[in-house]
Target: Diaminobutyrate--2-oxoglutarate transaminase
Amino acid sequence: MKLFELNESSVRSYCRSFPVVFDQARGAELITRDGKSYIDFLGGAGTLNYGHNHPVLKEALLDYIDNDGITHGLDMYSDAKERFLETFSRLILKPRGMHDYVMQFTGPTGTNAVEAALKLARKVTGRSNIISFTNGFHGCSIGALAATGNQHHRGAAGVPLTDVSRMPYANYFGDKVNTIGMMDKLLGDPSSGIDKPAAVIVEVVQGEGGLNAASAEWVRKLEKLCRKHGMLLIVDDIQAGCGRTGSFFSFEEMGIKPDMITLSKSLSGFGLPFAMVLLRKELDQWKPGEHNGTFRGNNHAFVTATAAIEHFWRDDQFAKSVRAKGKRIADGMNKIVRRYGPYSLFIKGRGMMIGISCPDGDSAAAICRHAFEHGLVIETSGAHSEVVKCLCPLIISEAQIDKAMTILDAAFAAVMSEQTANQASQAS
Amino acid sequence: MKLFELNESSVRSYCRSFPVVFDQARGAELITRDGKSYIDFLGGAGTLNYGHNHPVLKEALLDYIDNDGITHGLDMYSDAKERFLETFSRLILKPRGMHDYVMQFTGPTGTNAVEAALKLARKVTGRSNIISFTNGFHGCSIGALAATGNQHHRGAAGVPLTDVSRMPYANYFGDKVNTIGMMDKLLGDPSSGIDKPAAVIVEVVQGEGGLNAASAEWVRKLEKLCRKHGMLLIVDDIQAGCGRTGSFFSFEEMGIKPDMITLSKSLSGFGLPFAMVLLRKELDQWKPGEHNGTFRGNNHAFVTATAAIEHFWRDDQFAKSVRAKGKRIADGMNKIVRRYGPYSLFIKGRGMMIGISCPDGDSAAAICRHAFEHGLVIETSGAHSEVVKCLCPLIISEAQIDKAMTILDAAFAAVMSEQTANQASQAS
Amino acid sequence: MKLFELNESSVRSYCRSFPVVFDQARGAELITRDGKSYIDFLGGAGTLNYGHNHPVLKEALLDYIDNDGITHGLDMYSDAKERFLETFSRLILKPRGMHDYVMQFTGPTGTNAVEAALKLARKVTGRSNIISFTNGFHGCSIGALAATGNQHHRGAAGVPLTDVSRMPYANYFGDKVNTIGMMDKLLGDPSSGIDKPAAVIVEVVQGEGGLNAASAEWVRKLEKLCRKHGMLLIVDDIQAGCGRTGSFFSFEEMGIKPDMITLSKSLSGFGLPFAMVLLRKELDQWKPGEHNGTFRGNNHAFVTATAAIEHFWRDDQFAKSVRAKGKRIADGMNKIVRRYGPYSLFIKGRGMMIGISCPDGDSAAAICRHAFEHGLVIETSGAHSEVVKCLCPLIISEAQIDKAMTILDAAFAAVMSEQTANQASQAS
Amino acid sequence: MKLFELNESSVRSYCRSFPVVFDQARGAELITRDGKSYIDFLGGAGTLNYGHNHPVLKEALLDYIDNDGITHGLDMYSDAKERFLETFSRLILKPRGMHDYVMQFTGPTGTNAVEAALKLARKVTGRSNIISFTNGFHGCSIGALAATGNQHHRGAAGVPLTDVSRMPYANYFGDKVNTIGMMDKLLGDPSSGIDKPAAVIVEVVQGEGGLNAASAEWVRKLEKLCRKHGMLLIVDDIQAGCGRTGSFFSFEEMGIKPDMITLSKSLSGFGLPFAMVLLRKELDQWKPGEHNGTFRGNNHAFVTATAAIEHFWRDDQFAKSVRAKGKRIADGMNKIVRRYGPYSLFIKGRGMMIGISCPDGDSAAAICRHAFEHGLVIETSGAHSEVVKCLCPLIISEAQIDKAMTILDAAFAAVMSEQTANQASQAS
Model:
């Protein structure tokens, strides 16, 4: 551990919560150098939907590398890329009626994809303002950071974060306040001070922001608002996409058609750096190379992503299983809520992107600490880090879910009863 | 090809110059799906210093994957990371007297590393202005793009690019004009209008900008200027580093000590996405997670990078060979220059980062086209794309160099004689 | 008229509504070169609270000029400035318990005062964000324009308007929605995306924005919000101040204590360019000359402002008369509303800053046109220019008010009945 | 004095150098409340070209006020404005072949005029970048401040100052370095990092920047550069215009035709707040009211400005006298230079905008202090406040010049001999 502390920048963070050295990983399990195994409810913050080292993907990658498949080729045509384009088009886009999208491979991180989408929206519309939402997270490079809400990250920008207007997310002011109506008034008022936006960027479920899930109705109204005011609709599906909510895209069943969709995290399927912007063909007004990056088009990721799509998305079995497991986790959580905090705890999120909101960040942190000590890697999210977040691989077994729920139950028991005890002693 | 055109965004660029589908690659060779082989003088724009699929690195990676080594773990501690930290420290930093640097793993692209370095410089100094140079290239996300000079990229920003003051690079105004003296005057003048900069970001050899190589004297003076005016010195060694100029860092023999160094491209050794900021320990004022990204710490890249450093940098044989090959290429180029344009062509660059400046972008493009038709993948750089740029893998064989030089010679012969003929016919 | 069209920029605006050439003006009357007289309900957009060429002020100014009083002295000490400082302190500040404010004389326009206040707020707090409100108007220079809501003006900026977060004004979303509570939630949420503001800038009655009057309760809550979140409270009293609402400051009876107050428009009392920032002494962290301007401290304006304060504000008679006349105007308006649009017209504003909101900008414009043809100079305001705005001099006589009301009544009669007729014919 | 210190913000500055209370002023004389008279070599920082209270202007203003001439009418048509338009057109524009300019009356300060010019340049060209020069001064509101060089002012902005590229003024790097050639290279290089500018804003003689006078050749080349690169040429003639350099505009004899000219300071002739942008008719693409301000079109200033133009500019006598007096002052200064610092002092500037550059700011300040004690109000300018600046009224008498020169001579004698003595004692 010393070696890390001596040589790695203090910016490192997750390792502080999980001070062990991991070496191997399989499916929903992380294994330390000392052979200790943990159930992984962090899931690479949404990057490991198909688990660690999934055998089908691993096989494909080993074969590719073994055969000297081209690894790095900038954005030159490669066989691996062609297979990805064909497969993604055939199994993801076409079955969903999305024939008219093209794919842009940006630098292989979510923030690079967001930067590209915002640039293109501004270029196409000739407007510079972007609407993003309270508690939204879109990345840490300056262009994307301007759209991100988190002050911890914004505060490190070093320059003003401009050309973004912040709007309240669904239910931000409670379920009585119609935030779409508010936006409509602001956008229709020529002296509201909100400059006409090029686009709205939105997560259908906000991951880092605390597992806030917008209703289908809100999302549909948001799309209508975009059409009314000439704004593009960008869905940032980096964390909620690739099956996490029970369908490939998080917005599938909502009946909307975004202008652009950013994907990354679980897109490669194997945890490899990879990012893509899906954009409606008519918006593809890029000049060659106008937005670029050395690692755009990671061929290893093309290979594993193609294998993942072929394996998991050729029919609806996988999606169904995700919904079933999501229910199993929700059931487990409901028990915890009823048992330890029927008035202070509540469930947030959708599909397998759910968690329990705790009274505060301290108790949530204590719960995660306790869980880790008992074999479960799990983290918090939310404005006050108050949500214990379950982002386990979608391929997790029912047994693993149950085991994790047992660990979580014990953690809540320990922390919440201590809290109750403290409150009681303060009250007396 | 149709499939690419239908499904991939028009932003794709290199594939337009090389309209074939590559499938495999080995060492300095790219191989199409049809089995046609090309010598690679593009080298992933500096990403493939150790060639494609180098057997030692490949072996290490195959083993790691085969053994279910952890692929994605955010910034948790991993065995692979520890080995990289230890190896980089032992074989790169310590022998160069750079004990007091720590490593920050940013999102795995160059632009993410630059974003991190600029943020940190601003945070540490409390200033927002950054000096960058004419013809400099530092990436395409908004924070880095502000420091990049290229109008093609800047024009797509969609928002103003702020908080950067542009200064003339070494010899930008010819070798009679002392650009360091100019900067000194501007920085020392309280009404010059140049706000005190947090940092200077500089490439010691400008890759995209046209293989402009600063002299050791200029770089040393620049460091002194930084110290005098309280600016940090950031060397962007993303393209020129990792051995390209004949030493691991491009500035090694110059006797300077940058405050931060950004590395990416060839750092993984295998073409995998990877990026790092080296920073002087006293500047490591990051709070945990303040700058983050999902793919920071790519374990596959740790594995290949560690293997590469062990293999190539345990002694100075490799560096020596780079310098020797650089000379061989320069000799070949000199012949071309003397033969086809003693007054109109000239050599630019340093080490194995060299090229031939042509009279204009059209002739350079024609030369690259001709070369490609004869089996050589090569591209241009420079403000007017006028420099035919040789960025071949450093492990290229002498025979391959000679073959490439023969192809290049023929290309210059064809294009330059045509040009001369055109001029003659215009003159008559 | 030709001469104007040939020689003056097309940016000119009010002259388009009132295409006559004015020559003289007295009290509440404007007189054209041809001797035609108009009642002035425009009042220099709030600049002529004491009427045109008030004899007491005029006398003071004539004496001063005749005696070769210093006109322009930058910010050197002058007798005229000293008398203004003493008088303003004695008759305005002290009786209102505002002992601890100092006066800053900025360039003599409202926008310059706002620029100064925003700069100082940012300097003192070390924050850059400013909260301003929907429909707020604070000026047209870039710093102030960022806080202004009007798109017509914002659209001409030519650069992004940054470092301002827009919030909904009192009742912006109707009287059911608690906009203070909304702000509190946004400001207390560390991932809302609203960076901690240096200050809030607010008009207690929004003039250009459509005579929106905030309640005392809302303003008091806003002040509390400022204290809670460490934001300074800047009241922009440029249009609503100097007696317009029935007290010297528009917020007097509300029991708040702003950190800064910007004044201009009627401050000189004579229509002369003049502007001032009142700031709490502890905020006076300016270094000498840090914010400057050639015409800061207009001595002619000091002279007339001093005379105006001595004449109008040595007791409460004037304030009382303003409230009485405000009521007289409101009564007249009420009759108009009841007569021509009990459901479509309504009264907005406070004191002598009131108007009638019309169904749309076209009808409001038609009403003003009709009124002008019958001897009344009057203009619109509001997001859609839908409010017929009465900003007559506060010294107007009851007879003049009554005459103006008769003209207005006829204008509403003509336009609203025509509207009703149109609607009827469309319906049939 | 106490009253000022108690009640006026610490931002006040000139009064600190001249701690007396002025009351009256006539011609080139300032008179304190105690009856002490000073020769005015500060001249309102260029605002009092025709002296204080010039009898002809004073008479016109008294008559106008006495007759209840309209003082404030926003931008409505007034008789006084019409007379100004006609007179300025007839006596200034037409004789100089400038038939095709229109006049825009902005808020009555220089910075407001600059804000308007920059906005319009950006609007017309669709570009956002502006070139301004080292040591340039253009005002303190955020839009203008971005173009200003002075760090004392820039440092108080509180927000980044963006969309301006700073270029070296004529001779900034000495007379060997061709700064026009440098700009040409930067602007013609598509990867220089200098975005295509909307306009160049330049002072032909830099007042605040230290009386740097560009040669006619440099200015002509600058105009050509503007035409070549599609940039508008804005001459900021706020300080150098209105006769200061020996012709109405500072650039008259240079044979250029600026796209826009900003005027303020001495434009009213009487020290009244007033500002104007002259712009080529084809650039007049303003929509009505797009850029506005309450005090645009100060009628008192129209009256005095018209009188001033009629009196001073109906023939070339006044311009001739300015050139003659400029020479008289220069002769006096030359004697001082030869006497007290043939190697350390030198003369800067042009016409009656000249001064003596001292070894440093301390000696310049000491000289001004000494002069003030002996009856001369004079200030410094320049990056280090090292230039003793003579901006006396142009109507000053020869006797007053000679008297002032005697005072200055004594001041230099006292300070420079002391300096020499100090140096001698340090050396020994």
